[in-house]
Design a protein that fits this description.
CATH architecture of the largest domain: 3-Layer(aba) Sandwich
Radius of gyration: 21 Å
CATH superfamily of the largest domain: Glycogen Phosphorylase B
Largest sheet: 7 strands, parallel
Distance between the termini: 12 Å
Helix content: 40-55%
Strand order of the largest sheet: 3-2-1-4-7-8-9
Low-confidence stretches: none
Structural class: alpha/beta
Shape: globular
Oligomer: single chain
Number of helices: 16
Strand content: 15-25%
Number of domains: 2
Amino acid sequence: MNILVVGNRVPWPLHDGGAVATYQLLESLSQAGNQVTYFTYNTQKHFVSEQTIQENLSFCEVITTPLDASIKPLNALKNLFSGGSYFLERYFSVSASATLTALIAERKFDLVQIEGLYSYPLLFKSLSFWGELLNASVSDIQKSGIPVVYRAHNVEHEIWSRLADHEPNWIKRMYFRIQSKRLKKEELQLIKNATAVVGISRVDCDYFVTNTTNKVHSHLPSVKTPLKIEVKIQPDSIFHIGSMEWDANVQALQWFLSKVWPLVKAAHPNVNFHVAGKGIQAHAKMFFQTGVHNHGEVADAREFMRAHGIAVVPLLAGSGIRMKLIEALSLGIPCVATPTAVQGLPPEEIKQFIEIAGPAKELAQALIELLHNRKKAIDMAKLGHQYCLEYHSSVKNTESLLQFYRGL
């Protein structure tokens, strides 16, 4: 197949779940013998040089267009008096849309895939006076005989709604709720207008099925899982890794450090908590506590995970599947997580290899137990690795996705 994937950023380096999910998809589709073109913004915030792109994404054709998508407080304030979503408005560009339209007209693509909700504005030609996206070219593409598939990384508006629920600042809480409602409107429009929807979790797919009559396919994300592992768990050590440019991760760590970490440290005085992630230095003051170590943005996330014991994923807001959690399981690392962090995974299977706890005391107790019970931690790690081999295999999941695409 000749597939065009439309994205909103270059998926490199692989320092966050969104980049990993997009990169693995592009690589898997290419390795399965498809001709893959990736049209995307190269944003100022996540800028990647052409040389780096050629070195790391050589398996597909990458076409980029520049964009400054940074949050501008004045524009964010002005947006309150419009009817559109500021989160989507930041990714709108008349010139980029025109370039993409010309590319689709020129090439004979078999299918166009929209990679995540924030790529959707690329398919719009204008904004209304009230800041709403107008004149989507989705129907034009479909009329030419090309299916348009929306691959959803999350149910985006749910994330912002949950962030609002846990936001102590009333001004930010109000803003998040307004933006969540506007984002939901655009999200539902895309779900209904696309030829088909691909979700990366069963929970998300259930939501899509109830909101569209179009076809929905569940495509669990793939990770590079070694066939065999030797489980080595660093004693007296727990860690968290994730992009601190994402508000949900910041909120999660604030909660964990204030409510959970003191309980763990009191019961297990020798324990150390290691944190790493993109943009973490902007929040460095959070980590000045006894036993907490800020590693900044690490060069190799997988090596960091292997070296620092038990993974903790304390998310309070989110949707889809947490890629760093799946990566940890694939490497044979025991995991402790909140219910929100695992909501996209099969509930019965994961109870065997992920300790799931919501209230702070229960999450702390789960960590304390694993720190003291090494055999249980090792057994969980082995089961988690087997789960990834069965459910997150690149070859198996990609073939299922391509069979779905051929049927469109």
